[in-house]
Design brief:
Elements (H helix, E strand, L loop, with lengths): L9 E5 H4 L6 H12 L6 E4 L5 H14 L2 E5 L1 H6 L9 H21 L3 E5 L9 H22 L3 E5 L14 H11 L7 E5 L3 H4 L3 H8 L3 E6 L28 H13 L10 E4 L9 H18 L1
Parallel strand pairs: 1-2, 1-8, 2-3, 3-4, 4-5, 5-6, 6-7, 7-8
Helix pairs in contact: 2-3, 5-6, 6-7, 9-10, 10-11
Length: 303
């Protein structure tokens, strides 16, 4: 593609993955500043700030930079073992409360979207019941988000059997959930992540064609699934081209083509496509971010 990639997308980045050690107020704000001062990026996704004052300062930074802001509730659920489709009602209620806290935090920093994930797949015997519980949970969260403003919710598709073993999961089930949730909230959507597709056993074309009518966010990253002894095995989001990983320039090129084919990426559409990459031990955040940018440029040239 000869036209600039920035004519077709806002390139975003998942801050808490790229800077996993930015836990203090100083590091949280410093690393956010490093991203939003780089005009390659038009979007950023953060998770919980260390404290309320830091959240207020982060919002000021986002507003001054004019970037699209997303909030990731995935770390909140994973860190607290929250399960929105748990068979136990009390466990579901706890997970719903966790995401509601995330919604409050997202609104505080001025985010436009909030991403989250389903709980573990309970197995074939209880799967349909779990899907029903998940729909109910998300509908409650959508009503809560609407009461707070215009925050869009996005259910991210994770692996079904490899690492996180989430209910959602396969694109077919994701669409089934989205269809029901949209009866309550037409703005609700799905998030597809390139790094999860090899674990899901789905090609970009299949996953994106299936979800095209519900897709409202997209990630790009890598995973390792060939060698269980690899220290980065599973859903660890190594840099593109990691030895033993699944995603490099050819796979990213295929993903970009599929996103263009379904119309998620289009000239002037201004939708976010975000890197989700994490430095391995011994790697720096700055180096893998620069490498990701180079990989995207190369893949875009081949589209």
């Amino acid at each position: 593609m000869r036209q600039s990639l920035h004519d077709f997308m806002r390139v975003g980045i998942v801050h808490f993955m790229a800077y996993p050690n930015a836990k203090s107020s100083e590091e949280y704000l410093r690393s956010i500043s490093a991203i939003i001062e780089d005009d390659f990026f038009g979007g950023i996704e953060v998770t919980s700030a260390p404290d309320e004052e830091t959240a207020i300062q982060a919002r000021q930074l986002f507003e001054s930079a004019g970037v699209a802001v997303g909030f990731g509730a995935q770390p909140i659920l994973l860190g607290n073992k929250g399960n929105l489709n748990a068979l136990d009602a009390e466990e579901r209620s706890r997970a719903i409360a966790l995401v509601k806290e995330g919604i409050d935090q997202a609104c505080q920093i001025g985010a436009g979207k909030l991403g989250f994930l389903s709980g573990r797949d309970p197995g074939e015997e209880y799967r349909e019941k779990a899907i029903g519980y998940l729909i109910d949970s998300i509908q409650e969260l959508c009503r809560y988000a609407r009461s707070k403003g215009n925050l869009q919710l996005s259910l991210e598709l994770f692996d079904h059997v490899t690492d996180k073993c989430c209910l959602i999961g396969p694109t077919r089930l994701a669409v089934e959930v989205a269809q029901e949730v949209r009866k309550v909230d037409p703005a609700f959507g799905l998030m597809v992540d390139l790094s999860h597709l090899p674990m899901q056993g789905e090609s970009p074309a299949k996953a994106l064609t299936t979800t095209r009518d519900y897709l409202n966010h997209a990630h790009m990253g890598n995973c390792v699934i060939r060698d269980k002894n690899d220290p980065l095995y599973g859903d660890t989001h190594p840099r593109f081209g990691y030895n033993g990983g699944e995603i490099d320039v050819p796979e990213l090129t295929e993903y970009l083509r599929a996103l263009l084919d379904i119309g998620y990426l289009a000239e002037g559409a201004d939708r976010v496509l975000a890197f989700e990459i994490k430095p391995a031990p011994g790697e720096s955040s700055q180096a893998i971010i620069a490498q990701a940018k180079r990989t995207l440029r190369t893949a875009w040239q081949r589209v």
